[in-house]
Amino acid sequence: AVTLDEDEVDDLRGWAEASAAVGVAAERVEPADVRRIEPELAPDVVEAYLLDEGHRVDPAALTGAFAALAAKSGADVRHHLAARRLIERSGRVTGVVTDDGVVEADVVVLAAGPWSAAIARPLGVTLRVAGARGWLVHSAPGRQLVRRWIQSGARRLLHGHGSRSDPDLVVSLREFGEGVGSHDVSPMIQPAPDGSILAGTSREPSLAADSYDLDVARMVANEAVRLIPALADAPVIATWSGVRPVSPDERPLIGRVMEGLVVSTGHGSEGVILGAASAELTAAIVLGEKPPFDPAPFDPLRFER
């Protein structure tokens, strides 16, 4: 984790301290020694930490593997089947309306990411989840430029409106009409096994299913070149975006919101990282078993209370 900007130093130190507090080895590196570790980094790094955390995974392959394991254990996995709305009878959710008809269920788990709030709303359930679009830019520099995952700056996710209960991902009708927007861009450099590089990440309010505006993707590219100057002439392979579900306090929403309905959403950009623990908690709630850890911080209705 590095930063080129003096105004990000305190944020970066706080992030490193928070990582160390949960058991991640975080070692401060003198700016003069940074290029010894990663020679292609820009020479004007002002603060840096070496964190021993994480491994790269392919989210699509991981999802497919989990689905295969679930099917092997007896689950009925239905691909590309759109769920349109929940069925409620006498105050209890009893199933889902899909494009293939009604699927009845004793318990429904709502894990529809940024679309969870829209699905729950007709039942009078308010879920404080907003859609946050994030961009990635894929390039092929032709040689290995970096060996480590490099994050520039702290992972500052919400800012702008000054209220943790009113994230800057929520755009008022006036702001929308006036074209007011907000975004957060930070060049996370992800070296791939084939030598190519993914550069991200960004976050902006997502108000449409698709986005054809590449302005934020270009900001990501510019910040990546600023951090790794040797990327400047690397051919761009592709750029794409996805929409992530974000809660006002950055914590997931996991829990029962009404009879027959359990929610598991709001993981932001940490879905893969938090997936296993979230699944354990969700399963315990569905089965009525003792939770593996305190579920209170993830109560889906905590903002209303």
The biggest sheet, with number of strands, parallel, antiparallel or mixed sense and barrel status, is: 4 strands, antiparallel
Succession of helices and strands: EHEHEHEEEEHEHEEHEEEH
With helices defined by DSSP (H or I, 4 residues minimum), what is the helix count?
Answer: 7
Shape: globular
The counted number of beta strands is: 13
- Helix percentage range: 10-25%
Sheet-strand content, in percent, reads 25-35%
Describe this structure in words.
- The chain is globular, with a radius of gyration of 21 Å.
- About 4% of the residues have low confidence.
- Helix content is 24%, strand content 27%.
- The chain has 305 residues and is of the alpha+beta class.
- The protein has 7 helices and 13 strands.
- It has a 4-stranded antiparallel sheet with strand order 9-10-8-11, covered by helices on one side. A 3-stranded antiparallel sheet has the order 1-3-2, covered by helices on one side. It has a 3-stranded antiparallel sheet with strand order 4-5-6, with no helix packed on it.
